[in-house]
Amino acid sequence: MTRYWIAAECFDADAIMRITGDCPLISPELCGTVLKTFKCGSGYTSNIKPRSFPKGLDCEVFTKTALFIAYNEDDEDREHVTTFIRSSPDIYRTHVENPWPIAPEGRLCIDTEDDYRSICAAFGHAPYERLRAA
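The structure assignment produced for this chain is given below.
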C-alpha cells in the first residue's frame, strides 16, 4: 500500500486506478466504465465485489482520501491495498455490473502456468517454451 500512497503523493493524484500485473487482458473500455461510474461520487468503485466479470478483468478506482484512511487504519492487510477500503463502512462504494455476455466464473488472469496455457489456447497461440541452457 505504501507504493500507492507514495505515487499518489508524488503525482498529486485525486483518484487512483488499480490494475494488477496478472490481468494482461484488461479492457480499456471496462476501465473507462469503472472510472466513469467512480466519477459519480464514490470513494471506491470496482467490478470485483461482488464479482461481475471473470477474474482477470479486475479494475478498481479509489480516492486519495480512501487510500489515506486505509493507509492509516489497516495494519493487517497492507499488501492487497484495497481490502480495507472494500470493507470499510465509512467509504461510499459503487459497483460496475457486467453488461457483456461473459460469465463471471471464468479466469482470464495469469497466476499459474496453466492459466497462461489456457489463455494461449483461447487465442489460438502456441505458448512460448522456456529457454533452456545449452
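Interim note for the steering committee: Strands lie at 15-18, 44-46, 60-63, 93-95. The chain has one domain: 2-122.
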